[in-house]
Design goal:
It contains twelve helices and eight strands. The chain is α/β, with parallel strands linked by helices. It has an eight-stranded mixed beta sheet with strand order 3-2-4-1-5-6-7-8, sandwiched between helices. The two termini are 16 Å apart.
């Protein structure tokens, strides 16, 4: 099964809650679209986990488009909705900006969202691009985090830089920077803590890591990726909102688009927080994490059960 087919399969729940319901709505309200239509459309957005602010905004935007274009036919309204969703997501997020050598990718996320798995897959992508990658075990307080990262370093053909459990995360990052200076790596992927329940500790820890990087590699390119579990819906949006207060997030890795995902959060993240999804994961395979393409996502959302468009 190709990546697009997996994406279509992963959006099955969202497609049932949103696309199938909206199709029924458009068919029922052929001709002039009254207030009842827009109220029901907003409810459909909410059921697909777009969130209240995004659902309200998109409903009003579609209303304006329909009035402005004098749309009367259901199929035209459906296409207008599809176009609006594509425009909301934009042209897509840029690839990782890692032109300097060394360069850094810091990865943040709470336990259980697939952070370590995502790090391994990103490492594999960068290694295949010809980069010399090292994984940096700076999430030193989570049980088994170092062992899990070691496994992914082996699977992705990259190096692991670690200290003992409970070590100072900033010290681990310093060791990694020193290793990069000595030619052991040109790209450092840093696994950082995600203890959101104690935000002050998280912020202090991240601030210390950033200070080390600012001092030792002030001109190095750096990306800060937040890993979110798509199955968590609006809870994931809330996590993103809190993490943006703790770190300068440059992009999101959305995992577990696996058949139970609440795909509407992609639009909520972009609309409410202005943060785009950079990578999207649709399975456990090494190639099941790829750069997010908004138009492909919307096409998958509107595709039939077998992935036909």
């Amino acid at each position: 099964m190709g990546f697009f087919s997996k994406l279509v399969a992963g959006l099955k729940k969202t497609r049932t809650a949103f696309t199938h319901a909206s199709d029924r709505l458009f068919r029922a309200f052929s001709g002039e679209l009254g207030e009842d239509f827009y109220e029901e459309l907003e409810e459909i957005f909410l059921l697909a986990d777009f969130g209240v602010p995004t659902a309200t905004a998109l409903t009003e935007q579609l209303r304006e488009i329909i009035v402005e274009r004098r749309i009367l036919r259901a199929e035209e309204a459906r296409e207008a909705l599809k176009e609006l969703l594509c425009r909301t997501l934009g042209d897509g997020e840029r690839a990782l900006e890692l032109k300097t050598k060394p360069a850094l990718v810091l990865v943040i996320g709470v336990n259980g969202v697939g952070k370590t798995t995502s790090i391994g897959k990103i490492a594999n992508c960068l290694r295949e691009e010809g980069r010399k990658v090292a994984l940096v075990a700076a999430d030193t307080f989570r049980a088994a985090a170092i062992e899990q990262l070691f496994t992914w370093a082996e699977r992705s053909g990259t190096t692991l830089i670690a200290q003992k459990e409970g070590a100072d995360p900033a010290s681990v990052v310093y060791d990694a920077i020193d290793a990069a200076r000595h030619g052991r790596a040109d790209t450092l992927i840093v696994d950082t803590a995600g203890r959101l329940q104690n935000k002050k500790n998280l912020m202090d820890e991240l601030a210390k890591i950033f200070r080390v990087i600012d001092r030792e590699l002030p001109s190095a390119d750096r990306e800060v990726l937040l890993v979110l579990d798509a199955t968590m819906g609006q809870n994931a949006v809330s996590q993103a909102r809190e993490f943006t207060k703790a770190a300068p997030i440059t992009g999101i890795v959305l995992t577990k688009i696996d058949g139970s995902a609440k795909g509407g959060i992609v639009f909520a993240l972009k609309k409410e927080l202005g943060i785009g999804v950079r990578y999207i994961g649709v399975g456990e395979g090494m190639d099941d994490l790829q750069l997010f393409e908004p138009r492909d996502f919307v096409e998958a959302l509107f595709s039939g059960e077998e992935g036909e468009q």
